[in-house]
Design goal:
The complex is a heterodimer of chains A (146) and B (78). With 146 residues, chain A is α+β, with helices and mostly antiparallel strands. Helices cover 30% and strands 41% of the residues of chain A. In chain A, a hairpin with a 2-residue loop joins strand 9 and strand 10 (138-141). Chain B is α+β, with helices and mostly antiparallel strands and 78 residues long. Chain B has a single domain (2-72), classed as Beta-grasp domain (Ubiquitin-like (UB roll)). Chain B has 2 helices and 7 strands; from the N terminus they run E-H-E-E-H-E-E-E-E. Chain B has helices at residues 8-13, 28-38; strands at 2-4, 17-19, 26-27, 49-52, 55-56, 62-63, 69-72. In chain B, the strands form 2 sheets. Chain B has a 5-stranded mixed beta sheet with strand order 2-1-7-4-5. In chain B, a hairpin with a 2-residue loop joins strand 4 (49-52) and strand 5 (55-56). Classes of the chains: A alpha+beta (146), B alpha+beta (78). Chains A and B meet through strand 5, helix 2, helix 3 and strand 9 of A and strand 5 of B.
Chain lengths: 146, 78
């Protein structure tokens, strides 16, 4: 199962299958771009000195795709970038697995770096996706409580 | 009116959706008051938003009975 929203210059997907780094990079490659910036989020095996056994990701898929589209469209208005990929995984992930990949191609590296950082920072603030950290002795929805 | 729940709100509701009685054309604020009375644990969250038809809604926005309404607890993707 995957929700995919592919336009000419951006490719946005939420999937419960493993994300594919190489195909994300291939999708943005073009002779007109001079640099590709990649951010890969990975599941860390600890948080605040507690061992994390797995993460469980859940998305409100239709709205999440909507919000990710908004981020991509905003980025094209703000910086001279050529292609954007935003892929997010859902379901149960083990430490070391990849919940998110963001790839930005631009003619020059400054725009690619800046836009990539903006996309992951904004995604974490606005896109309705949630993760639950599961420990050996309990579990917690991240950021739910003050 | 049907309300969709995600993340921790699913645990607060003990379900992924609930049906509540709310007048047509209530505000988002009125919906939150109604929900918080029924589910006081919502007040313990850092914050939460209401989404109407896949868009974040403001306190004064009007909800119609056929809208898709969801509770959005603090997001934590990435």
């Amino acid at each position: 199962m995957a929700v995919n929203y592919e336009k000419m210059n951006f490719d946005i997907k939420i999937s419960n299958e493993p994300l594919q780094i190489q195909s994300c990079i291939n999708w943005v490659m073009s002779p007109a771009c001079g640099g590709i910036n990649v951010f890969i989020g990975t599941v860390r095996n600890n948080t605040q000195q507690k061992k994390v056994t797995r993460l469980e990701f859940e998305a409100y898929e239709t709205m999440a795709i909507n919000e990710m589209n908004k981020i991509a469209e905003e980025v094209f208005l703000k910086w001279p970038v050529q292609k954007i990929v935003i892929h997010h995984r859902t379901g149960v992930l083990q430490p070391g697995e990849i919940p998110v990949i963001i790839v930005v191609a631009a003619a020059h590296r400054d725009a690619a770096f800046t836009a990539c950082r903006y996309i992951i920072d904004t995604l974490k603030q606005t896109v309705p996706i949630w993760k639950k950290e599961v420990f050996e002795d309990g579990e917690v929805w991240v950021a739910a409580h003050p | 009116m049907r309300i969709l729940a995600f993340g921790i709100v699913k645990e607060i509701f003990s379900d992924s959706m609930i049906d509540i009685d709310l007048n047509n054309e209530s505000t988002v604020e009125a919906l939150k008051e109604h929900l918080e009375k029924q589910y006081p644990k919502l007040n313990e969250l850092g914050s939460y938003m209401i989404a109407v038809n896949n868009e974040y809604a403001s306190a004064g926005d009007i909800i119609h009975t056929n809208d898709e309404v969801a509770i959005i607890p603090p997001v934590s993707g990435g």
